[in-house]
């Protein structure tokens, strides 16, 4: 467990930590000279009875160093708020309490230090002052201890209390250990040691890491990775570290100068960077004025502080003590995940204004106040991941990006909860789900569009699947679109012939002249092989007019009997089946990829024709283009049934 200490300008808190642990957390010469904490200090207390080791983060108390205090306080599990018996409650005490409350911290204690310098009457009055201070805050029920470091008074009781709190925290942490959270550490220091290399330290916010693991920096525009050579947790060499611990990681692959305080060290699957996030924010009750949209602020998240501004998503202003949904627009990218705590200070960094919880690090630029978006944010306020996921699915008329949800939640993909969905599609690292209600609504829209198309153009079989998607659901992810078509086909509500979609009762009949031409071109197309045949050549060899030939071939293509790869270049079904089978064979040997050179060599075609065929497979949905690579759509059944026949 990590215990944070927050106190005053003097050395009272440092003296208390030293009395509890034997460690002087003020390590800098300037700190010793001036008698104040400037940087974060660290100490550990062993509890031999149950093998616990409590970590202390000694944070600066000076009002000008609140930004450093925030870097240490974010992520702690327990707070000690110190009040000196001779000084009483100071202005920085009030701000530290505001920070702890806005960070959502409800576990902690108040320690009255230097109690040997005050009489009983002074201590009683101070207890009343403290009770009034804590009223309405997250630490309203916190116990109060009276201690004296020089005499040892009260230290044994405080140690016993901290040990009990550590046991309770360890039990809660172990109960949550299997929830699939990916490892995340908020970096507050980076340095280099001779013979060791780069070391970063920080508080582990989530997950578990082991020696040898590959980790990423976030945010980091270069996508750099590092391997963990060794670990220290709670100041002891370990093979693994977990959430709630102070951790030092010796990294291979990153130099000290490449790392900044405020970055995160995390599993690559959840590494992200955002300059816009949605949150639920509470304005501190002690503020004198309401918070308005556009207010410039310092945004503290993890161990990082950046400039930004607030955009209210509910109403025009946020009153003191009230809560509202907001979007934070940041001037620099940060790492942020759903559930992280955020604290805002004013533009001059002179006082703490508000705090809250991140709901979505992938906040939209447009339509951020629409009813649909507000419904999504309401869903993200559910307590458990499975509740959030199910509620989000119901609020997503165009499907839910499951991979993005997992990343925003800091979850490993395999830890995504099971939910009731009409469709669930996975394609490589991507995954989507569609609710039953959304699937039904999209199906009705699709079938209505098909019916309208048939009424307007009865002589055509139907639109191509890609064109139908543009007509009905252009924003629906393509994998979900294909899955929806397949579902409706299985239900017998539509038919697919090649790349064309039509209602089952609708068909295209060839005229007598077109049937005659179809019979003539069949052997010519069969003899054309993988090179295909041009419409003008088929017309010439069949002694038929070119316009009639083109019309007939277009009708045959609509029926799925022939395939037009490029304008006027046609293939028969047999050769398209074999070409598709060749593409699948190449993909099976190449991790799902079909390179133009490999396809060219396997078919004996020229490079230009090979690329034309692969691009046709992209259009009809057998392959998908990713950069210079064509990837097989593993769920596509195009040409499969024909090949087996």
Structural class: alpha+beta
Radius of gyration: 33 Å
Q: Overall 3D geometry?
A: elongated
Q: How far from one another are the termini? A: 65 Å
Main sheet: which strands, in order across? 2-3-1-4-5-6
Mean pLDDT metric: 87
Main beta sheet: strand number and arrangement? 6 strands, mixed
Secondary-structure map:
Elements: E1 2-6, H1 12-21, H2 29-34, E2 41-47, E3 52-58, H3 66-73, E4 78-84, H4 91-102, E5 108-113, H5 120-134, E6 144-146, H6 155-175, E7 184-193, E8 197-206, E9 208-210, E10 214-218, E11 225-233, E12 236-238, E13 240-242, E14 246-252, E15 264-266, E16 274-283, E17 291-292, E18 296-301, E19 304-312, E20 317-318, E21 323-334, E22 341-346, E23 352-360, H7 371-379, H8 385-394, E24 400-401, H9 402-409, E25 423-427, E26 430-434, H10 436-456, H11 465-472, H12 478-490, E27 495-497, E28 500-502, H13 512-528, E29 533-534, H14 535-542, H15 546-558, E30 562-566, E31 569-572, H16 573-589, E32 593-594, H17 596-603, H18 607-620, E33 623-626, E34 629-632, H19 640-644
Parallel strand pairs: 1-3, 1-4, 4-5, 5-6
Antiparallel strand pairs: 2-3, 7-8, 7-15, 8-14, 9-13, 10-11, 10-15, 11-12, 11-14, 16-21, 16-23, 17-20, 18-19, 18-22, 19-21, 22-23, 24-26, 25-26, 27-28, 29-31, 30-31, 32-34, 33-34
Helix pairs in contact: 3-4, 10-11, 13-15, 14-15, 16-17, 17-18
Structural overview:
The longest helix has 21 residues. Helices cover 35% and strands 28% of the residues. It has 645 residues and is an alpha+beta fold. The protein has a 6-stranded mixed β-sheet with strand order 2-3-1-4-5-6, sandwiched between helices.
């Amino acid at each position: 467990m990590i215990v944070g200490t927050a106190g005053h300008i003097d050395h009272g808190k440092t003296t208390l930590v030293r009395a509890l642990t034997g460690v002087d957390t003020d390590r800098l010469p300037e700190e010793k000279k001036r008698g104040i904490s400037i940087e974060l200090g660290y100490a550990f207390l062993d509890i031999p009875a149950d093998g616990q080791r409590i970590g202390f983060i000694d944070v600066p108390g000076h009002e000008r160093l609140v930004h450093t205090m925030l870097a240490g306080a974010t992520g702690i599990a327990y707070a000690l708020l110190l009040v000196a018996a001779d000084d009483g409650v100071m202005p920085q005490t009030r701000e530290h309490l505001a920070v702890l409350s806005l960070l959502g911290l409800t576990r902690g204690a108040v320690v009255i230090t230097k109690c040997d310098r005050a009489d009983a009457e002074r201590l009683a009055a101070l207890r009343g002052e403290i009770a009034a201070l804590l009223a309405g805050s997250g630490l309203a029920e916190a116990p109060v201890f009276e201690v004296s470091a020089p005499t040892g008074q009260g230290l044994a009781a405080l140690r016993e209390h901290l040990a009990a709190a550590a046991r309770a925290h360890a039990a809660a942490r172990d109960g949550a250990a299997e929830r699939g959270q990916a490892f995340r550490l908020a970096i507050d220091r980076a340095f280099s040691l001779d013979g060791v290399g780069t070391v970063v330290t920080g508080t582990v916010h989530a997950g578990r890491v082991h020696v040898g693991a590959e980790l990423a920096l976030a945010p980091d525009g270069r996508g750099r990775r590092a391997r963990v050579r060794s670990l220290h947790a709670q100041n002891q060499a370990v093979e693994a570290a977990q959430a709630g611990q102070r951790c030092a990681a010796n990294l291979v692959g990153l130099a000290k100068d490449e790392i900044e305080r405020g970055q995160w060290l995390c599993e690559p699957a959840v590494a992200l960077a955002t300059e816009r996030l949605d949150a639920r924010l509470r304005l501190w009750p002690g503020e004198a004025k309401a918070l308005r949209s556009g207010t410039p602020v310092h945004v503290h998240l993890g161990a990082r502080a950046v400039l930004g501004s607030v955009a209210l998503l509910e109403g025009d202003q946020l009153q003191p003590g009230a809560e509202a949904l907001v979007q934070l627009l940041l001037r620099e990218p940060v790492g942020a995940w759903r559930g992280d705590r955020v604290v805002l200070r004013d533009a001059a960094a002179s006082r703490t204004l508000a705090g809250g919880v991140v709901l979505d690090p992938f906040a939209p630029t447009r339509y951020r106040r629409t009813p649909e978006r507000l419904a999504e944010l309401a869903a993200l306020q559910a307590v458990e991941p499975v509740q959030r996921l199910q509620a989000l699915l119901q609020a997503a008329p165009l499907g839910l990006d499951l991979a993005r949800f997992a990343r925003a939640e800091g979850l490993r993909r395999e830890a995504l909860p099971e939910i009731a969905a009409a469709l669930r599609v996975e394609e490589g690292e991507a995954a989507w789900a569609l609710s039953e209600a959304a699937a039904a609504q999209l199906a009705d829209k699709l079938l209505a569009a098909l019916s309208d198309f048939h009424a307007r153009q009865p002589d055509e079989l139907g639109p191509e699947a890609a064109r139908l998607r543009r007509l009905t659901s252009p924003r629906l992810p393509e994998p979900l679109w294909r899955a929806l078509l397949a579902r409706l086909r299985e239900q017998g509500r539509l038919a697919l012939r090649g790349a064309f979609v039509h209602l089952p009762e609708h068909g295209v009949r060839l005229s007598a002249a077109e049937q005659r031409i179809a019979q003539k071109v069949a052997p010519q197309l069969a003899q054309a092989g993988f090179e295909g045949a041009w419409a003008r050549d088929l017309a010439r060899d069949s002694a038929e007019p070119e316009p009639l030939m083109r019309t007939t071939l277009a009708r045959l293509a609509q029926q799925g009997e022939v395939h037009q790869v490029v304008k006027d270049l046609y293939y028969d079904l047999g050769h398209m089946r074999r070409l598709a089978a060749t593409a699948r064979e190449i993909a099976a040997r190449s991790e799902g990829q079909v390179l133009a050179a490999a396809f060219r060599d396997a078919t004996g075609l020229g490079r230009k024709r090979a690329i034309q065929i692969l691009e046709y497979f992209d259009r009809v949905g057998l392959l998908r283009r990713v950069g210079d690579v064509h990837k097989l759509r593993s769920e596509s059944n195009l040409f499969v049934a024909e090949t087996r026949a």
